[in-house]
Every structure is written in C-alpha cells, then in structure tokens.
Amino acid sequence: MNMKKAITASSISRESKSETPDMVITGVGYELPSHELDNHYFARFMETSDEWIKSRTGISKRYYALPILGETTNSLAAKAALRACAMAGLDAAKDLDFIICGTLTPDEGMPTMACSVQKALGMKRGFAFDLSAACAGFVFGLTTAEKFLRSGSHRRGLVIGAESLSSIVNPLDRSTCVLFGDGAGAVVVEARSNPSGTPYYCGQIESDGNFADLLCLPAGDSKINTRDPRYSETLASVHMKGHELFKVAVRYMRKVVEQCLEEAGISGEQVDLFIPHQANIRIIDKLAEELNFPKDKIYVNIDRVGNTSAASIPIGCGMALAEGRLKGHETLLASSFGGGLNYGACLFTLRLGSGAR
Ligand code: ACO
Q1: 154 is known as an active-site residue
Q2: Each residue of 110-137: pLDDT tens digit?
C-alpha cells in the first residue's frame, strides 16, 4: 500500500517536472559605441605599451561611449534590446512581460536603466528592474529570469547586460584603465516546454563577500557622499587587486562551471560553444586548461572589445552569431565573475527566431 502510494507520488512529481516550462533564448542583439581606442592611445600619456597590454591581457582595442554623441549605457542597451526583439520576431511594445538589466554603470541613479529601456521600446506593461552583480550581472539576470518563466507567472522577457566602464575607470591608473570597454548585449528569453530530459537552461550563481576588497568602487553615496567637499574623484573609480583577483576568478569560475554541467547532466563535449567572461585572455586560457575544455570551442573577443563587464557574454554571443560561429540552435556555456565577489555559470539553449509562440 505504502509502495503504491510512493510510486504514485513520484510519477506525479516526474510528470509535473516535465510540464514545468523551461527557458530558451529566441533573440540576441548587441551594440558597440562608435569611438574605438587602440592600445597606442594609452601609451601616448602613460607608461605602458601595446606590447605590454596585448601580452598581459589579450586586449588590442576597446570602444568608449561618447555621451556628447548621445551614446550612453541606456541608449546602447535600448539598441541591443530592439535587435534582440527583432531577431526573436517579437513586437517589443506588446509581447514582453519583463526587462532585467545587469549593470553597474546605468545613466542615472534613478530611474533604472531597465525602466528607460522599457520606455524606449514603447512597452507599457510588465516589470523592469536593474540588478547589481557587477560583471556577473548578465548570468545573475538570466538565472533570475528563469525563475519567473519556470514558475509559469511570466512567458517572455529581455535580459540585458550593458555598461560604460569608461565612466568609472581612473584614466590615469594604468593597471585598470587599459582593461575596460563599453557596450551592450541583450537576449529575449521565453518559456518553452522541454520533453527532452536535458535542461534548456541551467544556472549556478554564487557570491563571496569575503573577497570584496579585490574589486571595488568605494564611492556609494551613503558612505562617501559625492556632494561631500572631501570627496575625491578616485573614490568613484574602480580599484582592483588584479593579481589576487586573477587566481580567485579562475578557482570560482571552474567551480561553478563544473557544478553547472553536473546539475544539467551533460559533459563539456555536448557544449557547442563556451563564452567565458572576457576579463583577461590568460584567465580564459587557465580556466580552459583546468577544465580540460577544447580551445576551439571557446569564444574570445577580448582582443577587439576589452572587458565590457556585464555586457561581455551577450556581446560575445551576438558577435559569435555575426561571425557565423553560431547558427541559432546551439547549446552554450557561459561563466562570469565580478565585484562582490559575484560569480556564476550557465548552460543555455538558442532557438533563434522562434519568438512569441
Ligand atoms: N602597462 C605597463 N605596466 C603595467 C600596466 C600597464 N598597463 N599595468 C600594470 N603594470 C605593471 C605593474 O605596475 C607592475 O609593475 P611592478 O612590477 O613594477 O610593480 C607590473 O606591471 C606587474 O603587475 P601585475 O599586477 O603583477 O601584472 P599581472 O601580470 O598580474 O597583470 C592584470 C595585471 C592584467 C590586471 C592581471 O592581474 C589581471 O587581468 N587580473 C584580473 C583582472 C580582472 O579580472 N579584472 C576584471 C574583474 S571583474 C570585471 O570584469 C569588472
């Protein structure tokens, strides 16, 4: 009798699991600012060189948004979002239920970037909020969106990573200013039934505040008020202990990637393309070596765009599509880390162009 009860309960739970919606990506868009800066630009006014920057970071150039031309984090995000909606086949004004933006450099403290994108898209419904997880903002955003879709409360939304890191680096600090660039990437996420047994989306996100001092931006208004006469500009810039951060980044990204693959029940061989956070080519190489991940399946664009923080992964996805590395039906892996520390990995599935079904 008890056995019968147990079998019935487990089959109900299996059935309801397969009926729980999963999440797929149906559109991808990205936008880079127009102003391109190569490494020689920095060598003109500080002690550095193209050779040092390339060999220690893998970066050859990056793009800076110029607000004077109307280029800001929010405008880049809105353009990326429109492209993602067009690719998905959605009417951005009507079809979306939510917008989640990962950013640490929105145009304004209030309203949020997400609300400004909502307005730019002509969207008059749903919810929109920014999420603060530094460079890990996009993976944190995707994993948050997945919860809304799996619960059945919402059907489709936008997840955006957008930054103007040029606005928060100290232009005279050679150990940080050469690393970062600006840009935005967006994806449309939609609920889909998944009878396959292998998840379309699987995310692992974690934080460790004990390493907060490795990467920080000290001026947050409640502690160091920017209106205080003792306030100094350098407090509003990124401070980084690059050497230590390098090691922790590799260790934590390896951990969450392994957890993610195990949770999804798939091996690295089943992944079509791995897009790691583009912070330093040596971090990417070390991570690949520790995971024993084949280099030809790792996407790299740090040479062309630098570290764009929360925008790094969706820009990578958009560029890989534009270059023909992706066709639109692949299984991808991504990993990221950033200030906090926040770090995460996710497995996600492209079903491009199949939006609003
Ligand atoms: N040009 C020339 N020399 C430089 C430069 C530069 N741009 N920057 C630093 N140096 C010098 C240092 O002053 C130091 O000189 P010293 O030996 O006389 O003191 C020397 O180069 C070596 O410095 P290290 O910091 O040990 O160099 P390292 O090989 O570690 O490279 C780097 C520095 C590139 C910052 C590296 O540590 C790194 O990439 N760390 C991780 C950074 C990261 O992940 N950032 C992103 C975090 S999350 C996010 O995306 C926001």
Answers
A1: no
A2: 999 999 999 999 999 999 999 999 999 9
Q: Determine which helix (DSSP H) or strand (DSSP E) holds 71, and give its type and residue range.
A: none
Q: How far is the CA of 213 from the centre of ligand 1 (A)?
A: 16
Residue pair 52/175 in contact by the 8 Å Cβ criterion:
no
Strands (E), the chain: 22-31, 35-38, 61-64, 98-102, 127-131, 156-164, 182-192, 202-207, 215-216, 239-240, 273-276, 331-338, 342-349
If DSSP codes are grouped into helix, strand and coil, which group holds residue 260?
helix
- Residue whose C-alpha is closest to residue 200's, from 333, 339, 106, 319: 333
Q: What is the pLDDT of residue 236?
A: 77
Q: Is 116 in contact with 78 (CB distance < 8 Å)?
A: yes
C-alpha closest to that of 313 among 164, 200, 206, 185:
185
Q: What is the value of pTM for the model shown?
A: 0.92
Q: What is the pLDDT of residues 290-310, one digit of tens each?
A: 999 999 999 999 999 999 999
Cβ(307) to ligand 1 under 6 A? yes
DSSP 292: T
Instruction: Answer yes or no: is the C-beta of 279 below 6 A from any ligand 1 atom.
Output: yes
H or E, element range at 149 = helix 137-151
Query: Which ligand 1 atom minimizes the distance to the CA of 277?
Result: 50
The mean pLDDT value for 253-266 works out to 97
Q: Which atom of ligand 1 is nearest to the CA of 104?
A: 51
Query: Under a CB-based contact definition with an 8 Å cutoff, are residues 260 and 204 in contact?
Result: yes
Closest-lying ligand 1 atom to the alpha carbon of residue 312: 50
Does any ligand 1 atom lie closer than 6 A to the CB of residue 242?
A: yes
Tokens at 287, concatenated: 């991570």
Q: Which CB contacts under 8 angstroms, 24+ apart, belong to 318-325?
A: 318/28, 318/29, 318/30, 318/80, 318/83, 318/185, 319/30, 320/273, 320/275, 321/28, 321/352, 325/273, 325/299
Cα separation, 335 vs 141, whole angstroms: 13
